[in-house]
Amino acid sequence: MSRTDDEFGEVTRLGNQHTRYEYDYNPGVLETFPNKHPENEYLVTFNCPEFTTLCPKTGQPDFGKIIINYIPRERMVESKSLKLYLFSFRNHGDFHEDCVNIIMKDLVRLMEPRYLEVVGVFMPRGGISIYPFANYGDAEHQDMVRQRLLASFRNS
Predict the structure, then answer these.
(1) What percent of the chain stands above pLDDT 90?
(2) 102 has pLDDT over 80
(3) Catalytic residue (one of 5, 6, 48, 55)
(4) Mean pLDDT value across residues 38-61
């Protein structure tokens, strides 16, 4: 069951040889495509091991990994647009916790998924690593929201 050209109507970045990289936060680069299996509950995971942003106070770079897990509904995020979106944080000054919550909210607004979580695994600064976790679930996934949030607490 191949995709039709109509299904790619909103996907403009994939296959484009003239990619323009945003250097400031821009959720406008995100694109979606139709989920061909909306009747199934399944998990999609993205791993961005080279996420960078700036400290809002010092302007120094912060490095980390962003992991996005979601259960789609009707729309799915296109991976190249997601890469460009995450790249747009490169010159964005915000705390790690803010970045993770911004990413979660932007993706929920974009796709209206059944469930979505964003995990940040940031490199130590001043001897402390920060691992923010933010998640969202529709009415049917509120138990999962609580379970995943509790499960994300790390033991020392």
Answers:
(1) 78
(2) yes
(3) 55
(4) 95
How many C-alpha atoms does 149 have within 13 Å on its Cβ side? 12
Judge whether 48 counts as a catalytic residue. Answer: no
For residue 116, give every residue at least 6 positions away whose Cβ sits within 8 Å of its Cβ, in sequence order, or none.
68, 69, 70, 71, 104, 107, 108, 135, 136, 137
Answer yes or no: 99 catalytic. Answer: no
User: Check: CATH 3.20.140.10 for 42-151?
Assistant: no
**Which among 5, 6, 48, 62 is annotated as catalytic?**
62
How much is the pLDDT for 156?
39
Closest CA to 13 of 4, 21, 5, 3: 21
Indicate the domain borders of the chain.
42-151
